[in-house]
């Protein structure tokens, strides 16, 4: 971010520094736009963004051309610094991603270990039941959840079915 060329006039050095700083600011803005939700969960990332914002703020005193990017960076800092609201903390069912009716309007979000997935559990008698478990669940935890739902864990096996058989 603070790279300076070793040669050239003072104006060339300033132009070089300004272009580098703008590129880094754009990169940080894109990174925060893509991973903003995950940044809220990572204290080191949040600290970096806040420290970066302070550094850019300081630089705007000497390089006025950076001021145009400061409001957007400030918005990102405020966004990731806020505690997620209760409505944002609710876990979404993974299968919602396959809803094609309003697919373009849905905001794509990365899958977290705490998100839940819906499983259809088929029984030999052609019936099925559904369970909802966190994405990060182990096979043993899935079997336990199925056993709890069915009332018995006797004879349970997990079978992966695919289009190839």
Helices and strands, with pairings:
Elements: H1 10-39, H2 43-62, H3 70-81, H4 86-89, E1 116-122, E2 128-134, H5 139-150
Antiparallel strand pairs: 1-2
Describe it.
The chain has five helices and two strands; from the N terminus they run ααααββα. It is mostly helical. Strands 1-2 form a two-stranded antiparallel sheet. Helix 1 (10-39) runs antiparallel to helix 2, helix 1 packs parallel to helix 3 (70-81) and helix 2 runs antiparallel to helix 3. It starts with 9 loop residues before the first helix and ends in a 15-residue tail after the last helix. InterPro entries: RA_dom, Ras-like_Gua-exchang_fac_N, Ras_GEF_dom_sf, Ubiquitin-like_domsf.
């Amino acid at each position: 971010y603070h790279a300076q060329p070793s040669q050239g006039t003072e104006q060339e050095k300033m132009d070089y520094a300004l272009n580098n700083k703008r590129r880094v600011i754009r990169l940080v803005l894109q990174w925060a736009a893509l991973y903003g939700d995950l940044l809220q969960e990572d204290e080191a990332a949040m600290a970096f963004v806040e420290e970066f914002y302070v550094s850019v703020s300081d630089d705007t005193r000497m390089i006025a051309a950076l001021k145009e990017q400061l409001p957007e960076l400030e918005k990102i800092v405020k966004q990731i610094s806020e505690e997620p609201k209760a409505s944002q903390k609710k876990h979404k069912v993974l299968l919602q991603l396959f809803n094609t009716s309003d697919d373009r309007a849905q905001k794509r979000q990365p899958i977290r270990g705490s998100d839940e997935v819906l499983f259809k559990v088929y029984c030999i008698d052609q019936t099925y039941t559904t369970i909802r478990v966190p994405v990060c669940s182990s096979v043993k935890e899935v079997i336990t959840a199925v056993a709890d739902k069915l009332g018995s864990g006797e004879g349970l096996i997990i079978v992966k079915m695919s289009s190839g058989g």
